[in-house]
Amino acid sequence: MVGLVAVGLAGCSGDPLWPKRSAETAEIAPLPEGIVRPVARPDDRSASLGETANDAPVAQAKGSLGTTIVSLGTPTEPGLWIKTPLVKGPGKGRVSFRGKTIDVKLIAIEGEASAGSRLSMQAMQALGIPLTDLAEVQVLAI
User: Fold this and answer.
1) Which domains does the chain have, with CATH numbers?
2) DSSP category for residue 53
3) In terms of Cα–Cα distance, which of 60, 57, 76, 78 is closest to 139?
4) pTM of structure
5) Residues in Cβ contact with 140 at an 8 Å cutoff, skipping those fewer than 6 apart
6) Using CA atoms in the order 39, 28, 21, 15, what is the torsion angle rounded to 10 degrees?
7) pLDDT digit string (tens) for 8-39?
8) Within its chain, how far is the Cα of 69 from the centroid?
């Protein structure tokens, strides 16, 4: 039995089913759409898992982005954020509702500027918006 294992392993090095690949000839399989392969950064930090092209900073105008109707976003996604078509990329912002204002992370979603937005559960609670309501909020980029 030991002889069979040794013969089987000896044949792997030149076996066309088990070709040797060097780093230069290895093919890299494509990733699903929206996922970015981690790369080395100048300061030797690796990109974090789950980081996507949408996480890259995007220059955008500061100030009022307009009003939007918000509904509850994914309740299991923590933090203070708004997913809105009013922005083209991530950034820092503020959301105001009936005299209350909070700082939030702006996250771009596709759609017409007049389309609705999704607000995190923590943001809705901080603004005093009932979780089942649709509310009109003012959005600002800071």
Assistant:
1) 55-141 (2.40.40.10)
2) G
3) 60
4) 0.58
5) 62, 63, 64, 65, 93, 94, 95, 96
6) 150
7) 555 555 555 555 555 555 555 666 665 555 55
8) 22
Q: Are 85 and 58 in contact (CB under 8 A)?
A: no
Instruction: Name which of 59, 76, 50, 68 is nearest 129 in CA terms.
Output: 68
Q: What angle do CA 84, 90, 92 make, to 5 degrees?
A: 90
Nearest one of 74, 137, 71 to 100, comparing CA atoms: 137
DSSP state of 141: E
Amino acid letter, residue 112 = E
Contact 110/85 with Cβ under 8 angstroms?
A: yes
| Half-sphere exposure for 124 (CA within 13 Å, toward CB) | 23
> In angstroms, rounded to a whole number, what is the distance separating the alpha carbons of residues 108 and 103?
16
Amino acid at residue number 118: R
Low-confidence ranges of the chain (pLDDT < 70): 1-61
